[in-house]
Amino acid sequence: MKKTLLASLGLTLLLSTSAGAAFAEDADSVPVAKESNLTSLLEYHEQEPNDSFEQANYYFITDAVIGTLGEKVQGTFENYDVYKIMASRSNEIQFTIQGDSYPDSWLELTLYDSNGQKIKRSRNGQYFLNADLEKGKDYYLTVTALGLQPGGHIFDYKISSEVVR
Which of 164, 160, 123, 163 lies closest to 141 in space, CA to CA? Predict the structure, then answer.
């Protein structure tokens, strides 16, 4: 019994040491830039319902969120998702959305202030939005599928963001 336990511990130690050395070799071979722009530190899925400012999911800059539009959610056709952003620093942020675009419908990003006043909207067919966020202020980012009709297309999307300056 003791021999089996010691053999298992020895094998575990050997494997963990070998794996650590292999990861260290890989890390050494990757060039490191002076400034690193991470586009996503964490990726998570939206939580329904998030179809109004009151129901908004929190969104954190440099994270990514995955969502869906065009399905029935709790008996209602969904073509609108809302995310609340709390700016911890003043920066220019680029929001990017990845998803399908059809001739009759596409995704649009719109940024609102904490009072629900529109600040900026992505241009038709452009799947990004640059905006200056001020430290200590709250914002809302909405995703809308323009031209989407019940029973039409389903949009699976991913929003990510990065600090531009």
Answer: 160
Q: Pairing mode, if any, of strands 72-73 and 76-77? A: antiparallel
Alpha carbon distance 139, 30 (integer Å): 37
pTM comes to 0.74
Nearest to 127 by CA among 79, 160, 86, 164: 160
Candidates 145, 148, 142; CA nearest to 124 is: 145
Residues 44-86 have pLDDT tens digits of: 999 999 999 999 999 999 999 999 999 888 888 899 999 999 9
